[in-house]
Design a protein that fits this description.
Elements: E1 2-5, H1 11-24, E2 33-36, H2 38-41, H3 49-60, E3 64-67, H4 77-92, E4 98-103, H5 105-112, H6 118-121, E5 125-128, H7 133-146, E6 150-151, H8 155-164, H9 175-196, H10 201-204, E7 206-207, H11 209-213, H12 222-225
Parallel strand pairs: 1-4, 1-5, 2-3, 3-4, 6-7
Helix pairs in contact: 3-4, 7-8, 7-9
C-alpha cells in the first residue's frame, strides 16, 4: 500500500489498524507494526544496506512494515539497493507480510518510478487529506482530555483563530501540531498558575484561551513549531 499525505494525518495510526485488522481476519499471523525510515535501512557503505533491509523485513514478518518517507530511498545507489532488496523480499514473503510506504504525494510518485517492480507491488493507494479546523479542534480537545485537562468555553474559538493564521502546505503538522500547541499551552498555564499564587483544584486542570494565546505561532514560526 501507498499512504500519501502531510505529517500528522494519522498515516502511522491507520497502518497499525491495518496490521491488527488483517491479523484479526487471518491474513497476517501476528498483526504487529514495524516502523522504519531511510536511516534504519541504509548502511554506511554499499553492500551493507541489503542486510539491514532484510533484518527489518524479517522483524516485520507476520505484520506490517511501515516505511516512512519512503521517497527518500529514491535517487542514489544506497537507496536503489534498499528498494531492490525490498522488492525481492516482498515477493519472497508475500504470504505473511504487508509493506506500507508513506510520504508526500508528489514525492511518492517519484518513488514508484525508482524500480520497475514497485508500482505492481503497491497497487493500493490511500490519500490522507489535511484535517479541517473543526477536526483539529476536536483532536486538541481529545488530547487535552487524555491528559486530564478541561477546556474553558472560550478555548475552541481561540484555537480556530490560531489555526486561521497558520499557513497550510506540505509542512503543515495537523495532529502533530495540535500536540505541540497543547504542550505549549500547558507550559503557559503552569506559568500563569504559578504567578497567581494559590490556584484552586479546578484551575489546575483548566486550560484557558489566554494560555493558547501565549503560544499562538506566527506564520514564520508555524513550520518549526512541530518539527
Amino acid at each position: 500500500m501507498i499512504f500519501t499525505g502531510n505529517p500528522g494525518t494519522a498515516k502511522t495510526t491507520v497502518a497499525r489498524l491495518v496490521a491488527s485488522g488483517y491479523a484479526h481476519l487471518g491474513l497476517l499471523s501476528s498483526g504487529h507494526l514495524v516502523e522504519v525510515s531511510r536511516a534504519d535501512l541504509i548502511g554506511p557503505y554499499l553492500g551493507q544496506t541489503a542486510p539491514r533491509v532484510r533484518a527489518a523485513v524479517e522483524q516485520a514478518l507476520g505484520g506490517v512494515l511501515f516505511v516512512d518517507e519512503a521517497y527518500s530511498l529514491a535517487g542514489d545507489a544506497y537507496g536503489q539497493e534498499a528498494v531492490a532488496t525490498l522488492v525481492q523480499l516482498m515477493e519472497e514473503y508475500r504470504g505473511d507480510l504487508v509493506v506500507i510506504a508513506a510520504g508526500y504525494e508528489r514525492e511518492m510518485d517519484a518513488f514508484l518510478t525508482a524500480n520497475s517492480g514497485l508500482a505492481s507491488r503497491f497497487p493500493k493507494r490511500i490519500a490522507f487529506p489535511d484535517y479541517t479546523d473543526d477536526e483539529l479542534t476536536a483532536i486538541f480537545a481529545h488530547l487535552a482530555a487524555a491528559e486530564g485537562l478541561t477546556l474553558a468555553p472560550d478555548v475552541p474559538g481561540r484555537l480556530r483563530t490560531v489555526l486561521r493564521d497558520i499557513p497550510r502546505g506540505p509542512s503543515f503538522g495537523n495532529g502533530r501540531l495540535m500536540r505541540n500547541l497543547l504542550d505549549a499551552a500547558v507550559a503557559a498555564q503552569s506559568e500563569r498558575l504559578t504567578a497567581s499564587g494559590a490556584p484552586s483544584d479546578t484551575e489546575i486542570i483548566t486550560l484557558r484561551a489566554d494560555d493558547l494565546r501565549a503560544t499562538a505561532p506566527t506564520r514564520d514560526e508555524a513550520t518549526g513549531l512541530y518539527l
